[in-house]
User: Which sequence fits this backbone?
């Protein structure tokens, strides 16, 4: 009977107790363990927090953070819950969301006078903006954090936060190429950690030594660089992003020394950490070094594989930076009691935004279709040229003026502005013979020689510069510089169409392949000849090649 009464009471509570009261009861029951989790999470800083939470159930932890926010009564409690969410999203690699939550925590701090948490939030945002490539914005939050941290009364907390903020300033100075200032800020960082108990900040201190290793590597002082890398390694007991960067730095030093065996050992350790890490910065750095290793040892196939891995990491990093920089800080503060008028305005704004986004998508889709149509015509023209090697027409037959862009300089000082042949200059037989020699020249690849110039080509064809300059101007409708550059671009486009491995090379490698002395000059000429940048050309070519391996395009609609 008593048991039946007990179940009746349970049924009455379940069916007749208001749902809002049930929710409150649930929050009350879970409040104590949730608070303990929150307190433990907020005692950690940046990378340490990221490493600890990365091994946990992040979706579950995010639900806990949301519950913390909903039950928080004080502004500082809300700040702590928002920062916890931001750190969890950082661990998940969702930097846009982590920055949004961090920005909202920063906004709430304007309501209270809490220098320690203001410094912590600024340090977190400085790191996030640095990781997505917005270095000036990172500097802004770093300086705000340093100023706030000076007012922290607890010397241990002050030293810890100042140490991390000075690391951020060192990263900023490295990005600017001011390595002496970077060393200065790392020394400030180490001094700050020393004031605290160094054993409590081993990972952060190791990060400072790793940054010093990077600085001296950039300065090509490999002995000093290695000494700092080894200091950092000795302080790191477990796998982490910092240890991956240390091994990558050691591998980079061995690459410079052409010590291939040791380079392979360190780079394998770095790759092992990078593959299991969410850090795109680490992946990009490691895959770049491994690519250089295989290039150095002559294994072109594996070099190509890691070139692709590098490009993927680079593209992901660029896309992440673009996403954050274009969208700007968003407002993701949890819902609270607001007037219906504000809700209506927000809903209207969302509708307008959606309509605008749809319009933008339609615009870019239309533009993309036009570009793809144009690209098909360019490829079709190139294939026609490849099938008729005897013809000497460049990729674009019209006169292109290269005078207003930065292109490869091919010596043409003799000049060729006078296109009217004086009979006393050369006989018609000499002119015909020179034209025949030029056609043979176009069928080879001598034009890719980096020493190519008017005088060099004249010597190869056993003629003088005046004759050669005249024939090129008269029959090729271009000066020597433009003529050679077109042949080079025609050559590399041929390779890109017919050999897939060329599409995996870095742009600098393609530039070197066809005789250009720099990435920028090659890109400028490529754009002038094809109307596409090299990367866009490769992207479209891969897309078309995937749909039809023989590059047979349907007619334009």
Assistant:
């Amino acid at each position: 009977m008593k048991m039946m009464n007990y179940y009746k009471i349970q049924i009455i509570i379940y069916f007749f107790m208001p749902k809002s009261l049930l929710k409150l009861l649930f929050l009350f029951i879970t409040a104590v363990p949730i608070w303990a989790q929150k307190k433990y999470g907020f005692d950690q800083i940046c990378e340490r927090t990221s490493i600890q939470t990365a091994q946990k159930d992040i979706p579950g932890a995010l639900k806990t953070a949301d519950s913390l926010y909903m039950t928080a009564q004080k502004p500082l409690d809300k700040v702590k819950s928002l920062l916890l969410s931001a750190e969890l999203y950082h661990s998940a690699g969702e930097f846009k969301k982590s920055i949004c939550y961090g920005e909202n925590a920063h906004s709430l701090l304007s309501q209270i006078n809490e220098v320690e948490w203001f410094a912590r939030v600024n340090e977190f945002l400085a790191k996030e903006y640095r990781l997505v490539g917005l270095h000036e914005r990172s500097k802004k939050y770093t300086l705000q954090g340093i100023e706030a941290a000076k007012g922290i009364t607890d010397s241990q907390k002050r030293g810890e936060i100042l140490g991390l903020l000075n690391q951020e300033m060192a990263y900023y100075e490295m990005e600017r190429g001011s390595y002496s200032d970077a060393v200065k800020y790392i020394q400030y960082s180490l001094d700050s950690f020393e004031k605290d108990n160094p054993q409590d900040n081993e990972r952060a201190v190791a990060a400072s030594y790793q940054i010093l290793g990077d600085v001296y590597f950039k300065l090509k002082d490999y002995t000093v660089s290695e000494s700092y890398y080894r200091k950092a390694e000795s302080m790191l007991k477990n796998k982490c992003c910092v240890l991956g960067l240390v091994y990558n730095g050691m591998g980079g030093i061995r690459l410079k020394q052409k010590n291939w065996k040791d380079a392979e050992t360190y780079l394998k350790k770095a790759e092992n950490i990078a593959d299991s890490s969410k850090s795109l910065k680490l992946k990009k750095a490691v895959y770049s070094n491994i690519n250089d290793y295989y290039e150095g040892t002559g294994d072109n196939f594996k070099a190509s594989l890691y070139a692709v891995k590098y490009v993927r990491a680079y593209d992901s990093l660029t896309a992440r930076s673009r996403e954050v920089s274009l969208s700007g800080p968003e407002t993701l503060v949890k819902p609270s009691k607001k007037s219906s008028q504000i809700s209506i305005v927000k809903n209207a704004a969302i509708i307008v935004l959606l309509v605008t986004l749809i319009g933008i998508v339609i615009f870019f889709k239309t533009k993309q279709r036009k570009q793809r149509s144009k690209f098909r015509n360019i490829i079709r023209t190139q294939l026609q040229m490849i099938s008729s090697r005897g013809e000497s027409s460049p990729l674009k037959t019209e006169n292109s003026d290269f005078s207003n862009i930065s292109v490869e300089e091919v010596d043409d000082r003799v000049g060729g502005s006078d296109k009217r042949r004086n009979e006393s200059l050369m006989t018609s037989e000499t002119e015909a013979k020179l034209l025949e020699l030029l056609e043979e020249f176009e069928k080879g690849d001598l034009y890719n020689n980096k020493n190519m110039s008017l005088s060099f080509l004249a010597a190869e064809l056993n003629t003088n510069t005046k004759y050669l300059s005249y024939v090129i101007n008269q029959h090729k409708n271009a000066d020597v510089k433009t003529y050679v550059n077109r042949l080079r671009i025609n050559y590399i486009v041929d390779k890109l169409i017919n050999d897939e491995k060329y599409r995996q090379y870095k742009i600098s490698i393609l530039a070197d392949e066809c005789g250009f002395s720099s990435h920028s000059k090659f890109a400028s000429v490529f754009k002038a000849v094809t109307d596409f940048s090299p990367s866009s050309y490769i992207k479209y070519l891969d897309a078309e090649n995937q749909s039809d391996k023989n590059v047979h395009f349907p007619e334009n609609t």
Summary: The two ends are 82 Å apart (CA to CA). The CA atoms of residues 150 and 387 lie 72 Å apart. The mean pLDDT is 75.
